[in-house]
Design brief:
- By secondary structure, this protein is α/β, with parallel strands linked by helices.
- The protein has one domain: 3-Layer(aba) Sandwich (Rossmann fold), CATH 3.40.50.
- The chain is 43% helix and 16% strand.
- α3 links the parallel β5 and β6.
């Protein structure tokens, strides 16, 4: 796959761009894929290949992931990562796009879309986290605060591994192996920065701000467990949701063909 490096404000960003192999049909908006925590562009390989049959397909490694450099300022929060997406938009000259984000990357794409709603006309959230600012006080005090405290301690890696193992329930062997391999390479500064930001990010409010722009739309492609009171499609009814059965959190790895089909149906149906 054709790759190149974009120089962002926090460091170099690795980008995959399939425009040379498969030119987009006239009128088709490019699609940009953003992975989640510990992910990289390779998690999207099947989706990139399927999308490139119809449109220009792009993916980027977020800061400190894959082949992108670690940020010089040590910032891994949602807002800083969204700036990486904007840098890629500008470098590629994209004035219209479908933006797809998985997990933590879904929050990143929400932020980028809200900043540039006239560029991001279609937003696809792949099994996004819930908006933890809407979590109950019992959940915040009994689960979230102790989890962040554990990440700040000596047992941070086992704490993170336990959370990822929970998210991998129902996943294929391939997904488990791929995610564990990437998790093993991530430093605490990155994991802690992303987890802290994820727990504090007002995703529902930012998503509603994006959707207030005429001509925008948001869709969620979900694994079955994603049905909490603070799930984004519950908090923001304007988000259309499709549940893919018999998959774990990394839907695009567990069921690449089904994911590609649902993604294309989602884009075509907007």
């Amino acid at each position: 796959m054709p790759t190149f490096t974009v120089h962002g404000g926090a460091g170099p960003l690795h980008v995959v761009d399939l425009r040379e192999e498969s030119p987009s049909p006239s009128g088709s908006m490019p699609i940009v894929f953003v992975h989640g925590m510990v992910g990289y562009t390779g998690f999207w390989n099947a989706a990139l290949a399927a999308s490139a049959d119809r449109r220009r397909a792009v993916a980027l490694d977020l800061r400190g992931h894959g082949n992108s450099g670690a940020p010089r300022d040590g910032a891994y929060d949602v807002e800083s990562c969204a700036t990486d997406v904007e840098v890629v938009f500008d470098a590629l000259g994209l004035d219209r796009a479908v933006l797809v984000g998985h997990s933590y990357g879904a929050f990143v794409t929400i932020e980028a879309a809200a900043r540039r709603p006239n560029v991001v006309r279609r937003l696809v959230l792949v099994d996004p986290p819930g908006d933890f600012t809407h979590a109950s006080p019992d959940m915040r005090d009994g689960q979230i605060v102790p989890f962040i405290t554990a990440l700040e301690g000596d047992q941070w890696r086992s704490t993170a591994e336990g959370d990822f193992d929970d998210a991998l329930e129902g996943s294929t062997t391939a997904a488990v192996a791929a995610v564990h391999a990437r998790l093993a390479t991530m430093p605490r500064i990155a994991l802690l920065g992303m987890y802290r930001s994820m727990m504090q990010y007002p995703a529902a409010a930012v998503l509603e701000r994006y959707l207030a722009t005429p001509g925008t739309s948001a869709h969620a492609i979900l694994a079955p467990p994603n049905a909490w009171p603070f799930s984004l499609h519950v908090l923001v009814p304007a988000v259309h949701a499709t549940v893919v059965p018999d998959v774990g959190h990394w839907i695009m790895i567990d069921a690449p063909d089904r994911f590609a089909a649902v993604l294309e149906e989602t884009i075509a149906g907007t």
